Amino acid sequence: MAAKIDEETCTACGACAEVCPVDAITVDETAKVDAELCSECGACVDECPVEAISLEE
After folding, report:
1. Phi, psi for 3 (deg, rounded to 5)
2. What is the pLDDT of residue 44?
3. Which residues form the domain of 31?
4. Among 6, 28, 50, 57, which one has the highest count of C-beta atoms within 10 angstroms of its own C-beta?
5. Dihedral sign for Cα atoms in the order 11, 15, 16, 17
6. 53 contacts 11 by C-beta, under 8 angstroms
7. C-alpha torsion sign, points 53, 18, 2, 40
């Protein structure tokens, strides 16, 4: 259940990458999550100012 980024909503602000404790998020035009690194902690979900991140089920 890795974090999922809604690329249409993402503003590439980088807030999620800054709080990710395992450096699973990179930001270019939008944020991208490396599912193998993601620890599913939810820190990025709480930090995203535009609510573009959710945890997959």
Report:
1. -65, 140
2. 97
3. 3-55
4. 6
5. positive
6. no
7. negative
Question: Which residues, including other chains, have CB under 8 Å from residue 12's CB and lie 6 or more apart?
Answer: 27, 28, 29, 30, 31
CATH code, domain with 37: 3.30.70.20
pLDDT band at 1 (very low <50, low <70, confident <90, very high): confident
Dig out the tokens for 10 from the structure: 């993402």
Structure tokens at 7: 């690329």
| Count of structural domains within the chain | 1
User: Cα-flanking dihedrals φ and ψ of residue 25, to 5°?
Assistant: -115, 130
Which helix (H) or strand (E) covers residue 37, if one does?
Answer: none
pLDDT tens figures, 27-52: 999 999 999 999 999 999 999 999 99
Identify residue 11 by its one-letter amino acid code.
T
